[in-house]
Each structure stands twice: as structure tokens, then as C-alpha cells.
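Case study B.
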Amino acid sequence: MKPEQSLEIIQSMMAEAKHSFHKISPYFLIWGVLLSISGIAEHIIVYQLEKKEGFLVWMIMGVLGGILSMFYSKKDSKNQQVKNYYDTLYGYLWGAMGITLFLTIVLTVINKQNPTPFILLLTGIPTFVSGGIIKFKPLILGGIVFWIAGIIAFNIPNMYTGLLFSTAIILGYLVPGYILYNQEN
Amino acid sequence: MLKKLDPLLHNELRLAIMSLLVGLESAEFSWLLEKTQSTRGNLSVQISKLKDKGYLKVDKSFKNNYPLTTCSMTPIGKKAFEEYVTAISDYLKLKG
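Model:
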């Protein structure tokens, strides 16, 4: 075998392995739809209809999102024949995000603070990093959208933070998620 | 002086297996079979050779009640692969 042939094999096989990513767009689509509905629903139920129970929509959507994500992840790993280092990285990154979010929500609610501005700022981190890992600009910009929305959220009345959250989710999750979905398929 | 090429890696199929695995945590036998377009028997033999030299780790388990073989590269394998790539690059530099 000539050195040129060796190099050709190395390059082509490494390129093949590079395309063995797990699809991540379904997660952005699942959470994008559920959370954007939640923000709007909160605004309508809590602030327009003046029913405090409206806050429960976050809990319901959170549980539903968790179940759907787990269901998809299980189905995906059944079909996937390759384990990528990035998959492990995503797992830890979003796992850490989930734990931090849960603690933030519990602690802010106990202290009678609106969790939304904090959630927005935090969401910027894994979104930005996920975009960086796969060099996907719309998701990197999505992370920046969350940080900007976080700053705005600290400076507007609580009744509008749900709507702001939905807008940020549409721009930061749904739009990049949809573009990524088309690329992955 | 040019380094001698690792004879174990200087083989089309074994080099393909190593190149596929170098950037991955692990891969199933069926995936390697599909990517290398080899035959089941030949792939199995070459994987065994790489395993015997300590370049690969081979795990046997079950998936959906079917036997599953998973391969991953060991640190020794990674080092050998890197040395092979360096040696090939040196050869090409000398030629070009």
C-alpha cells in the first residue's frame, strides 16, 4: 500500500466517522414548542384571567418535556450504532443545566423572586456551547438571544417576562432547531 | 531518518478500522462492517489482530436480545495510530 493510499483511507474514514452525530434538533424542537406555549399561557392565565394556578403550566410542560425527551433519547440510542465523545459532552452539559435550572426555580420561588430572568441567562450557556460544539451559528446566536433576553427580563414588569421568555425560546430554540432539523435530515 | 511504518496498521482494512474509531468513543461491529464494506469474516479477523496487539478493546453484550460486539480504541492504539500518521506524513513530505 502506497503512503498516498494510506492517507486517503485515513481521511475518508475519519470523515465518515465525523458524520455519526446523534441528532440533537428534536430536543430543541420539543422544548421549543412546549416552553414557548408555557410563556404565553402563563401571561394569559395568570395576568389576563388572573388565575394564580396558571403557573402550574410550567410544571406540566416541564414534566411533559422530560418524558418526551427521554422517550426520544431511548429510541435514538436504540438505532445508533456509534458512541461519540460529543454525545457524552451533551449529556453532561444539559444534565448540569437541568439540575441548575431546577435549583434556581426552587430557590427563587422560595425567596419570592421571579425565576424567569435567571432561567433566561442560564439557558444561554448550554445553547451557546451546543452551537459551538457543532459549529452551528444559529444556535450560537440563540445563546446570545437568551443572554440579551435575560438582561431585558431583569428590567421589565413580571407580567411580561413570560411573553419575553416565549419570544426568546422561539428565536433561541425553535428557529435554530428547525434549521438544524433540516440539515440533519 | 524515516520511521518504519507499523506493519499492523499498514493494511487497508485495519487502517480503515482504526481511522473510523480514532474520533469515537465506541462503535458497533455492524457499523464498522457497513463503513468498511468488508466481509463479516475478514473484519472479524482484522479486529482480533488489532485487539491482540492491544490497539482495540472489544466488548460483547446484548442489544434487543441479539449479541452485540462493540469496539473502541485503547490509548496504546491511539498512540500507534498517531505515530503511523506522522510516519506517513514524513514519507509524503519527502516525496512532495
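The radius of gyration of chain B is 14 Å. The remaining cases will be described in the next quarterly update.
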